[in-house]
């Protein structure tokens, strides 16, 4: 899954904050849920417009970026 199908930033959507593509769900909300100890499943249950492939793709993208891999998708 390519980065642009996982996360998008558009000034017309949530003031340009990164959201899961095709939704109005901010990526920050996902991160906050995980930090609070909630599971990915709990997040997806609460935000059904985000699909599992997007959530897992985001985690994979951030992991690849943390490793500094040149082929990692970038957040848009």
Can you describe this structure?
The chain starts with 6 loop residues before the first strand and ends in a 10-residue tail after the last helix. The chain has helices at residues 27-35, 40-46, 52-66, and strands at residues 7-8, 19-20. It has one domain (3-66): Arc Repressor Mutant, subunit A. The chain is mainly alpha-helical.
List keywords for this structure.
mainly alpha, 5% strand, 76 residues, single chain, two-stranded antiparallel ribbon, Arc Repressor Mutant, subunit A
Topology:
Blueprint: E1 7-8, E2 19-20, H1 27-35, H2 40-46, H3 52-66
Antiparallel strand pairs: 1-2
* Rounded mean pLDDT score: 90
Count of DSSP H/I helices: 3
Strand-pairing-aware structural class:
mainly alpha
Gap between N and C termini: 14 Å
Assess the beta-strand content as a share of residues. 5-15%
Biggest β-sheet description:
2 strands, antiparallel
What is the second-level CATH architecture?
Answer: Orthogonal Bundle
Summarize the structure.
This protein has 76 residues and is mostly helical. The protein contains three helices and two strands; from the N terminus they run ββααα. It has one domain: Winged helix-like DNA-binding domain superfamily/Winged helix DNA-binding domain (Arc Repressor Mutant, subunit A, Orthogonal Bundle), CATH 1.10.10.10.
